[in-house]
Amino acid sequence: MTGTVYLADTSVYVLRAQHGQVRQRFETLLMEGRLAACQMSALEYLNNAPNPRSYEILWSALHGHRWMDVTTQVMDRALAVHRLLAAASQHRHFRLPDLIIAATAELHRATVLHYDADYDRIAVVTGQPTEWVAVKGSL
Question: Rounded to an integer, what distance in angstroms lies between the CA atom of residue 134 and that of residue 131?
């Protein structure tokens, strides 16, 4: 396996079912072993399961590829970034799971793959790599 490793935000999981270009990118990265999930993205995605059978299908799929753990160090980094955002009065304008997913990616040296402007705003503070799964505003 070579190339960038991506931690997929929940937006990528949701949009892959709706848009062919997202599905193609998702499946390519997954087959190459370069797509990861974490506990926070899994919880967000699993929360959308409409019934127990769907939940179990999603559970198996999420645990069938690369995994990045949300650790105490990750949570400490999310808190530190939140504090940096607070210094600019920006801390209330983020979904907290996005801070945790971004911190997980940062500490695992992965790029956040997303369709969510919050990650660009977080990256301004952290300097970490992020990538839109499709051109911003195109979906």
Answer: 9
Q: Is 25 exposed, middle or buried (0-12, 13-18, 19+ CB in 10 A)?
A: buried
| pLDDT tens per residue across span 94-134 | 789 999 999 999 999 999 999 999 999 999 999 999 999 99
pTM value?
0.93
Structural domains in the chain plus CATH codes? 6-132 (3.40.50.1010)
DSSP H or E segment with residue 118? helix 118-126
Sheet holding 130-132, edge to edge: 66-68, 35-38, 6-8, 111-114, 130-132
